[in-house]
Structures are given as C-alpha cells and as structure tokens.
Amino acid sequence: MQPLSITAGTTVSALGAGREALRAALHGRRGGLRPGDFPGGPEGAWLGRVSGLEGVALPPDLAGFACRNNRLAEMALQTDGFADAVGAARDRHGAERVAVCLGTSTAGIEETERAYRRRSPDGALPADFDFERTHDLQSLPRYVRTRLGLRGPALAISTACTSGARSFLEAAVLIEAGLADAAVVGGVDTLCRMTLQGFASLELLSRGPCRPCAADRDGISIGEAAAFVLLERADAAPPGSVLLLGAGASSDGHHMSSPQPDGLGAVGAMRAALDAAGLRPGGVDYVNLHGTGTRANDAMEDRAVAHLFGDRGVPCSSVKGWTGHTLGASGALEALVAAICVEDGLVPGCLGVEEADPEFRSDVATANRAAPVRRVLSNSFGFGGSNCSLVIGRA
Amino acid sequence: MRCWIGGLAVLGPGLPGWKASEAVLAGEAPWAPADCVVPPPAMLPPTERRRTSLAVRLALAAAAEAAAGEDPAALETVFASSNGDGAVVGAILEALTDPAGAISPTQFHNSVHNAAAGYWGIGVGSTCPSISVGGHDDTVAAGLLQAAAAVSARGRRVLFCAYDAPLPPPLAAVRRTTVPFAAAMVLLPEPGASARAVLDLRFRPDTTPAVAAPADALGALEAENPAARALPLLRALATRRATALRLPLLGDSVLEIELAPC
C-alpha cells in the first residue's frame, strides 16, 4: 500500500490526556491501573479508568450524543490540538474529502445500561434515552464527523478488540480507492458493566494489575481510552516523518473467544502487514504485542512472533500493563505508542514483569531499552478470530 | 469505483432465497407475506449450530447462498448490521440489572458485533480478512461502499452481507426492526462468467430528500428492517435493466449506484 502520513494524533487513557502524558508514563514506567471502583464492576479487578470523564460536556447542539463513550471522544478531540489539526486538513482537502473511520466494541452501551436501570414499571426505556445517538455503533463516527465539520464517508467498525487497528486499514482502503484524501481514524471504548462482567464470566480478569508475558500472568485488566490519528497521503510529508507503512488483517476461523493456539491467524495478519509495507521481518525493530496478559493470548502470540522472526529474533513487549486492555481503542492507542517508540528510540519493557515466561521463545523486554527503532509492528487480536497488524515507522 | 456482482442472496418474509424470490423482486410475481424460515447453519459443527441465534443464522444463510458459486474460504467479507445480535445484547442488558450482574460467558462472546463474521470464518474455514460494520439506517449503504472500496483498492473478491433480526423488548420500542431480513452479494474486481451486473459507485454530498420506497408491499418492507434498505438494489439486479440508484448516507450524502446488466 501507499504509505500514509500520521499528520496528527491524540489519546486519552488512564495515563492521562495527550501524547506527552503517554510518553512520560512510558519513559517513567508509571502505570495507570488502579483497584477497580467502577459501579457494577466485578470485585477485585484492577482498571485503567480515565479520571474526570463524567464531567465532560458535549457542545450544546450535540447534547443528544451524550454518553460515556462520546464524552471520552470529546475529551480526546480537545487534546493535542487534534480538532484544530483536522480543521486545517478540512481546509486543505475540502470537508467531503476527509473520511472518518472509527472502531468501537460497545459504543455508548453504558448509557443503555443506565436506561435499563431507569425503566418504567411496564418495562419501557425512559423517553429521554437516545438509542440512535448513544447505543448505536455509528454514534461514535457520527459524533466525531459532525463535531469536526466533516462531510466525507464515515464508517463504524466493530471487530471486537481489533476495531481500532482495523480503522487504519479501512481508511487506507478508502484513500486508495479515491474516496478520500485524508481520514480521521482510531477507536474509543469505555468502561461498562457488560464488558467488565463479560470478561469476569470468562474468568479472564487478572487479580491485580495485568502482567503480560509473565510466567504467572493471570489475565486482563480492562481499561478505557480514546485514540485518534489523522492520516493523509504521504507525498507532502517531510523526510523522516513517522508513517503508516503497512496494514494487514486475517481471520482465525477457529473459535469465537480462544485464539488459534499455534498463532496461525496472528502470523497471517503480521505477514499481510509486512507485505503491504514491502518489508521482510528483518525490517522491523520492535513488535508491540497485543499482549493482553491472558494465558492463551500471550502464549499464542509468542509462538506467532517466534515463527515469523525466529527465536529471540526481535524485541517485543506489551504496554497493557500501563493502560489496561482498552479493547476497540487499543490498536489505535498502540499505534501512537509505536510512533513514540520510533521518535524516542524506545523499547518499553512490560510493566510489572520481573522475568518473561521462560517457555517463551521471543525476546520479551521487561525493562525499558534505548535502541534505534525505525519500524514497529503492532498487533491486535480479538473475539471472533479477528486479527490486524500495523507497521508504523520511517520509510 | 467499479465492481461486478456475482452470486446473490436474499432472505426475508416472502423472500426465501434468491432463486425463489427473483420473479417477485423483478415485479413479475406478487409478493406475499410469509414467515421467514431460516435454517440452522449446516456449515457449523452440531454443538455450535444449536447455539446460533436468529441474527447469526440469517447472516450465514445469506452469505452461504451468495457464495455458492465460489470457494467461500477465498473471499474477504464485509458483514453489515445495524443491531448486531440484539437478542443476545438485550439478554445481557437484562441480566446486568440484577444486583449480582452475572452474565453468561457464551452470550458475552456472542455479543460482539463480529460474531456472525466469526462463525462464518469457523464454518467455511476462512482465514481471509473480514470486517463488521454498523450504520443505523444507512448500514447497507455504508457496508456496500466499504466492500466496493476494498474491491477497487485491492482487487479482491469480497462477500458483502447485510442482516438484521428483530430486537427483544424494551429495545424493540426504540429501534424498529419488525421482521428478519438479510441480503448478500459477491463483489468481483473484474467481469467473469458469474458476473450478473456491473456497478459504478460514487459517494457524493447531497442533501436533497431521499427517494421514497416504491409504494408497493415489497417497498413497505424497507421500513421494517435496516437490512431491507438493500431492496432497491436487489430489485434492480432482479430486473436486469440499467438503473440509477441513490442510497442515503449520513444525512448529508448519498451513495450513487449506476447498475448495468452484464
């Protein structure tokens, strides 16, 4: 694929608002996970919760979109000058030439959960509940598109935990097909009872902060995040810019919630991303793992990475120990992590992990390493056997 | 953007599959309401098959019919649904109102919007890329646009499937979906023996009012299920006449489709 320029980007997560907060947390090895205090969440689980979210107000003319997910989206649009950067792109290309491709697994369903608790005696949902602008998947791209004054195509992608990464690939498709010159991509997912109780029911929640790749890892910590990137054709990008070089996807065709154990689906997505970037595995300096901290995911991913890169072939790690697993936002958030790794020459070691699982064959970093990082391969995998990998870096 | 249409499928009230519905869609036979019978997906192992919901069965039945002339495992897929598996999501929302809040693990993994896509991959043994998208009333147009863009940008064969099943109360009262409906088609990057029509698609800002659905019984179905917004395209494909369509998108734009039979 033609490389795309990452003209602007922003994120809000448990690490705070903005890319500099993310950068400082990665370098300072300060995580954002805390003992869970989300109403209706399972006892004992740690969460990556965004503080101050409940107080965010949407513009009055868009008040009908108010829900936890769109509040977090709004918070991110106001961060890192992102809305202004998109405004400039809108002026450059025309509003109808800027697409919006965003991923979310649950959109504003937390608002629906509230509405269910406010049902009338006959079971009806409250009259003020706005299904179309909160619960519905297109709530997120519609909100962002309207808020930014864009008139291009908009897509609501929901492929579980690959949604955020997949938005980059689908935007590249739209730009390559000539439907847009630029795209706002990314993902937003927020804490809700459904997600928290769902992962609890699968017995996949860690008892403390998650510890991806540790021998005694015991599951996921759920987080919430918004992450947005503005992608444009790279023709005008200054030399040395960090670009989206490739994106690829695959399906497991194996099981709804367990990965194909040998990692064949993961290998397929990584290969497709490398092919799209015109790279061999040796062209990658760091692999940002999906690394959720579950027994099955991390073991599968280790096999997949070792299969493609060889034993101890490339430094790799997961940043979920910082942010938690932010589900449909994670792929977009970690694309921004990848950009920081390239800019700063950083391999962030898994947080809270003294030693990687001795069974693993890949080179798992457990402490930060300073090293030249030209290109990062970033993985996302999800329920339904969905896999997506991105290559971020310098050409 | 240009693509060719290969295999087709439809499933809805009085529309039991493409072959059996072609004359009705072409206006050569009257549409009569009849219950939509959706078979359990033969492609899944018995344990999985029994557990599939109506939404998943609809999607898989339509996808399988459209892909019948192809190697189904070689197709990329775009699954488009406004409500996803509303029955499963509704059951989880109901369970979450209980103070204990415990929900079923199987229901949870079936609640993801890409559940139907996941079962398709398992059923046909596909490792091809797949996306699942939403889009409220514009679900069909949004999904078709993305599927055609994938064909145009990457030259791949793409199976596009739009489906929605009725919602349980109380969600049913806030999102009208009164009947099951699914439509599917294989989009091809080049003409071939299986190509039935060629589509030229364009996304364009347009705030003029949407074209009203035909004032007949079949046209009335369009308001009963978001996936039934595919009917104008299905009817044009069945008549095999050159047709220009405008599908509304995002309240301020349209997907323009020029269709010509092959």
Automatic annotation (TrEMBL), chain B:
Signal sequence, start to end: none
Pfam families attached to this UniProt entry: Ketoacyl-synt_2 (PF13723)
Cited SUPFAM superfamilies: Thiolase-like
GO molecular function: acyltransferase activity
Domain Beta-ketoacyl synthase-like N-terminal, residue spans: 30-208
Coiled coil segments of this chain: none
Name of the protein in its database record: 3-oxoacyl-[ACP] synthase
Originating species: uncultured Acetobacteraceae bacterium
Lineage, highest ranks first: Bacteria, Pseudomonadati, Pseudomonadota, Alphaproteobacteria, Acetobacterales
